[in-house]
Amino acid sequence: MKGLPSCDTDLGVEPRSTAHPLLATRRAAGTLLYVRKPFVLGLACLLLASTTTTSSAFEIFGWKFFESGAEEAEAIPDPTPYEASLTTTGGSEDLTKDLKSASLLIQQQDKPPSGEAGLIARALSDRERLIAKLYADGRYGGTVEIVLAGLPLDTALERADLPDTRPLKVAIIVNPGPVFSFSKVSVSTIGSDLSSDPSFWGLNSGEVAASGKVLAAERRIVSVLRGRGYPKARIAERRITADHATNTLDVALVADTGPQARFGQVTVSGTDVTDPDFVVQQAMLPVGGIYSPEDLARARKRLNELGIFSSIRLVEGDISGPDGSLPIQIEVSERKRHVIGAGASWSSTEGFGVESYWRRRNLFGRGELLSVEGSVGRIGNESLTDLEYSARVAFEKPGVFGPLTSFSTSLEARQENPDAYKSRTITYDAYLNREFSEQLKGRAGAEVFYANEEDAFGDGDYLLVGLPAGLTFDNRDDKLNPSKGVFAALFAEPAYDTLNSNAMGFVKGTVSSYYALDEAKRFILAGRVSAGSILAPSVEAVPASRRFIAGGGGSIRGYAYRNVGPRVNGEVTGGRSLVELSGEIRVKVTDTIGVVGFVDAGNAYEDSLPDFSESLKVGVGAGLRYFTPIGPLRIDAAVPLDPGQDDPDFALYVGLSQAF
After folding, report:
1. Rounded-to-integer distance, Cα 416 and Cα 422, Å
2. Is residue 328 classed exposed, middle or buried when 0-12, 13-18 and 19+ CB atoms within 10 A define those classes?
3. Helices in 57-145 by DSSP H: which ranges?
4. Position 167 confidence tier, pLDDT thresholds 50, 70, 90
5. Do residues 340 and 367 make contact, with C-beta atoms less than 8 angstroms apart?
6. In CATH terms, is domain 338-656 a member of 2.40.160.50?
7. Domain residue spans in the chain?
8. Residue 628: burial class (beta carbons within 10 Å; 0-12, 13-18, 19+)
9. What is the pLDDT of residues 38-77, one digit of tens each?
C-alpha cells in the first residue's frame, strides 16, 4: 500500500505513510492482515492530526500581531455547498462526539469544496478518517456509510454526477461495531536481543486492542534499536489477525535491526555566509563513535541555539564499509542577518516601558552576533528628564575555545530613577561563557562600573572594578510557561571601588520550581526563593543602584517599584541583604485562558545578613493569562498588605510570559 508522502524528519528518518498500517492487506511488503470472518475494511488514517497552517501570526481580541506570509486564499471555483449530519447506531456519546470532530464533512461545512468532484474527494477522505477513528477505539468490525444527495458514496463515485439540488444533503451513518481486545501477542527481533514480553511494549492480552497501541509499540521498538546504534532498524513484519467470533485481535511483530553503524563523514550544505567548518565544529558529532539519535538531537539543538539558521536537517546516508560508517549531511537554511524587534510593558506603579533592538546575525560567518539595544521606562510617571533610559551595544562570539565556550562583551549607559535614588551609570563587561551540560551553564569575566548617584546620603561617584561570575541550572520544560522543572542561578562578584578605596563583594541566588498537579498540566504550583548579600563597610559605601531594594513587578507585587527596604529620614536607601519569596497557583481554564492566584513576600535589610526580627512585606493578588504562540500575555492585580510610604493601595502589571 502506498501512503501519502510526508516530509523527512530532521534526523533523517524515512517518510512515513499517513494511511493506516493495520488496514493494509498484502499490499505493504512484510505486512499481513488475516481475517477469520469477512468484514468491511477501508483505507484510513490512524493518526488524526488536525489541519494546521504555517502562519506566523497570532490574534488577541481581534488584533493581529507578527502577521506574515501569503494573503488569504483565492475564492474557491465552483463551490458546492452542502449540509452534513452524522449518526451512530450504538456507541457512546463520547464516541459520536469524537467521530464528528474527526469528520471533515462535519467540521468544514462552512468551506464548500470545489465542484462535485471536490465533495466526493472529501467524502472519500472522511470515510478513511472515520474508520481510522474506529480502529483507534479498538473497533474492527464497524462500518461507515456516506450518502450524497441520496446516493451511496461508491455509486456517486461511479456516476461522478450528483443532483443539482443545493445545498446537497450529506448523511454519514456509522455502525461502530464491538470493541476488540488483544488475544495472542508476540514480539521478536532479528539481529539483536530485545524484550519479547508484549506487556513491556504496552500490548497486554485482554486490554482494548486500540490500533494506536500497536503503532506506539512499533515506534518504541524502532526507537530502542536506533538508540543502540542501528539507524536502519524497522518493523520487518506485522501480522494482524482479527477474529469476529470472539472479538479479539492477534498481533505478531518482527523487528529487523539492520547493521550497526558509526558516525562517518559530516558534510554541510545550504550555507551562504556561514563557514561550513564552523557548523561541523558546533554540531559536535562524534565521528567514529557508535550511532546515537541522542547525539543527533543534541547537535541539532546546539546549531539551533546559534540563532542563525531558519531550518536544520540532519540527513543520514547509507551505511558502508566494514566499520559500518554512516555519513551525515547537515542541511541548513540561513536566517535573515538583520533583525529589528520591540517590546512593551506597563504597571500602575512603574508606568509604561518600551524597548527595541537591532541585531546583525552571523557578522563574520561564524555565528557572531552584534546587538544595539535601547529602552525607556517609567513613561507617564516622570518628566522627560527623569525617565529611565538605557542604551547598550553587545557582541557575542560562539566557539572561541571549542564548541562549548563563547565570548561576550557589552558597553551600556543607563539612567535609573526610582523614588529611592537617581543613578547614571556606564558599564563595560567581558565574559567567557561555558556550557557544562544541557542544563548547567556558567560564565566568568571582568567588569568596570562607573556611577554618579543622588540618594538619601547625598551625591556620590563610584568606580568599581570587579570579577563577576555566575552559574545557571535550568531544566524547565518551557522557558515562558513552565509546568515542571527547576531554574536556579547563582551570582558572585568581588569588586573594588577605586574612587573611594572600598572593597566589597556581591552574592545573590535565585531558585524557582514548578509542579503540575494533573497530567493535563492545567493546575500548576510555582514557587520562587531569592536571597542576596553584599559584604561592604556600610550601606553608603555601595552604589545605590547596586544595593538591595525590594518592591515592584519582578519582586513583591503590590508595592511601589524599589520602595521596600531600609530608610533614612523616610527615604529608602537600600540594604546589604535581601530575601524574597513568591508562590503561585496557575489554572488553565481553556486552551487560551488561564487564571493565577499569588502571594509575594520579602524585605531588604541594612546589614549583610537578613534581620528576621523585621517582618516581611507581603503582597497578594490574582491574574489573568492569555496564551499566545509566543508565550502567555500576563495581567496581574496585587494589593500590599502592609503598605508603607509611597506604596499604592493596589497595583496592576501587564507583560509577556509568566511572572517567573
Report:
1. 6
2. buried
3. 93-102, 104-107, 115-136
4. very high
5. no
6. yes
7. 39-52+76-175, 262-334, 338-656
8. middle
9. 222 322 233 223 333 333 443 333 333 343 444 444 567 8
End-to-end Cα distance, the chain:
51
pTM of the full predicted structure?
0.74
Selection from 207, 413, 348 nearest residue 655 by Cα:
348
User: What span, in angstroms and rounded, lies between the C-alpha atoms of 503 and 542?
Assistant: 10
Report how far residue 3's alpha carbon sits from residue 22's, in angstroms, rounded to the nearest whole number.
Answer: 12
Q: Long-range CB contacts (< 8 A, 24+ apart) of 365-368?
A: 365/273, 365/274, 365/275, 365/278, 366/274, 366/275, 366/278, 366/397, 366/398, 366/399, 367/274, 367/278, 367/282, 367/306, 367/307, 367/308, 367/397, 367/398, 367/399, 368/395, 368/396, 368/397, 368/398
Distance CA 659, CA 636 (A): 9
| Grid cell listed for 447 | 567588569
CB-based contact 601:616 (threshold 8 Å): yes
Q: In 3-state terms, what secondary structure has residue 595?
A: strand
273-289 pLDDT per residue, tens: 999 999 999 999 999 99
In 223-337 the beta strands, taken as DSSP E runs, fall at: 234-243, 248-256, 262-269, 309-316, 325-334
Instruction: Give 26-72 as a DSSP string.
Output: S-STTEEEEESS--------SS-PPP------EEETTEEES--S--S
Which whole-number Å values give the CA distances from 285 to 88, 230, 437, 573, in the listed order?
54, 16, 15, 53
Superfamily for 262-334? membrane protein fhac (3.10.20.310)
Encode pLDDT of 496-523 as tens digits.
999 999 999 999 999 999 999 999 999 9
Q: Which grid cell sits at 564?
A: 521596600
| Residues whose CB is less than 8 angstroms from the CB of residue 332 and which lie 6 or more positions away in sequence, other chains included | 268, 269, 270, 271, 274, 279, 303, 309, 311, 312, 313
Q: Return the C-alpha cell found at 286.
A: 562524534
Q: Is 357 helix (H, G, I), strand (E, B) or coil?
A: strand
Asked whether the beta carbons of 413 and 391 are under 8 A apart, the reply is yes
Question: Residues of 407-445 as b/e, b for ≥16 C-beta within 10 angstroms?
Answer: bbebebebbbbbbbbbbbbebebebbbbbeeeeebbbeb
pLDDT value for 164:
79
558 burial type by CB count under 10 A (0-12 exposed, 13-18 middle, 19+ buried)? buried
